Amino acid sequence: MTNRLEKIIEYVDRLIIKLPLPEKRYTKHLSGVSSSWALLAHNQGLDPELAAISGLLHDIYKYKTGINMYHSHNGAEMARVILKNMGDCFSQRERQIILSAIFHHSDKSNMHGHTKADKPENKRTQIADIAEMLLAAPIIGSRQDSSFMHLIRYWPEDSAFDELVNAWCAAFVYHCCQEAGFFLPIRWINEDRFAGVSAWNSWARKLGYFIKDEPGVIPMRGDIVLYRNLIPHEYRLEGQKDIPIDHIGIILASDSETYTVAEGNVNNQNVSGILTRPLNKNIEGYIRIDNLFNYDDWVFDYLDETYKI
After folding, report:
1. In the structure, what pLDDT confidence band is assigned to residue 248 with cuts at 50, 70 and 90?
2. pTM (2 d.p.)
3. Which residues contact 156 (CB under 8 A, 6 or more apart)?
4. Are residues 139 and 283 in the same domain?
5. Domain that holds residue 218
6. Of 35, 98, 177, 268, which has the fewest Cβ atoms less than 10 A away?
């Protein structure tokens, strides 16, 4: 057994023992898949060590978070961070092989698992309904606030809490979208994570869901608003100083002059809020997700790509 395979085994063992109800079946399944993949790789003239490591990590996101939806894609993202933190143990090409294997391992069983309705439900309205319900009482970015811990559970690293405190406006939007049925992995393929505003901005523009703010544009309930230079300078975190698109929220209502918006982490003060703001001020634009959006339908075009690190 190689030293780096031992390191992965040690990591997996440490992770599983921390789960609320550690079960032997987790280790049994991962080790079984690891052995099977290594044998298949050997028989096909491929690298059995990389296959064994891929097998050990293939379901790690599902076990850590309890979330099965798109766990192979999210698992590749979790594994990306694991391998990155191991330094020079793996070359870039080796990491890409491992991540691609994890990313694709559920393709056959999960692709195109949903059908489109002739008259789709208004999931955008549901986003607003969920946001309004969640913020009936303020959410505080604290380990003692169960609502906060629930909405950041998608992000698998132990460092997630520390990284999101005072920086969870996008994580709040992600959670509301998931609850409304707009299912997305934690990271848009080869781009940023949806825990950051930049991912929402680039994703919406790529799919044609972005609406530029200009006079006469009135947002609708359930639209997602992207702000430009909204956070006061004194409240900006390190690394935010030169980022113009700096905040995100969910539209609840609007008229010709103002709109009501639900936001997580208002002004980077680590608390949620429902606010009324003036139209056409500090707004980059709006994201209006198609009610028929289905991640499976458009990700299929990317499945031949190697997962980038």
Report:
1. very high
2. 0.87
3. 60, 61, 64, 65, 74, 78, 186
4. yes
5. 123-287
6. 35
